[in-house]
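Bump. Still looking for Transposase IS4-like domain-containing protein structure tokens.
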Amino acid sequence: MLRGQQERLRKKLAQIDAALRKKPAKSPRVIERRIGKWLGRNTAAEKLFAVEVLVGKGRAVGLRVSEDPSKTEWAQAAHGAYLLRTNCTEEDPGKLWRWYIQLTEVEDAFRTSKSDLGLRPVFHQKEDRVQAHILVCFLALVMWRTLELWLKAKAMGDTARQVVQELGTIHSMDLLFNVRDRGETRLRLVSKPEPLAADLLAHLGLKLPTRPKIIENVVEKNRL
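Sorry for the wait, here they are.
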């Protein structure tokens, strides 16, 4: 792939250079954007080329293209390889790779808290709030990993996100009414799951309550 992108860039840059030498362009910036577009289409090879637009009398009259042999040799040697840089003194590559995967899982927990758990970005200005945000993200990671391991133990594969989405179709509703000798009473009802959600619950060994439940000591939401 690297060699193919190099050839495409060489060919295209040579075509642009030949066209400019035959008929200079009025705007060098337009040519620069055109070159940037082609470099962006060939990201594996773009760093191997140094391209300069030659300007004469305010017009783009050609290109000066050069390739660094040392960069080409390094790109060919590293292409398709995964390089990790760390300040850890551990020499076992297996351990370093596992630590790196754990890091990616922590980063994924931040995305999980914002997407799957529906927590919006919050900007903090106090250290204790920052620590609390980190705790929430850590709990999101723990919950997510627990769900993944639970699904694997049930031979359900790596389908945590699909399970959360499907179980999200199950809703609960609170009914408020006055009862003699009890005053205001709150009953919580759970909706009947859709067939797919019901199958997931059965595989996980979970049962939804089928009878209303009296809920007490509910903290009402503050309305602004």
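The longest strand covers residues 59-67.

Edit: fixed formatting.
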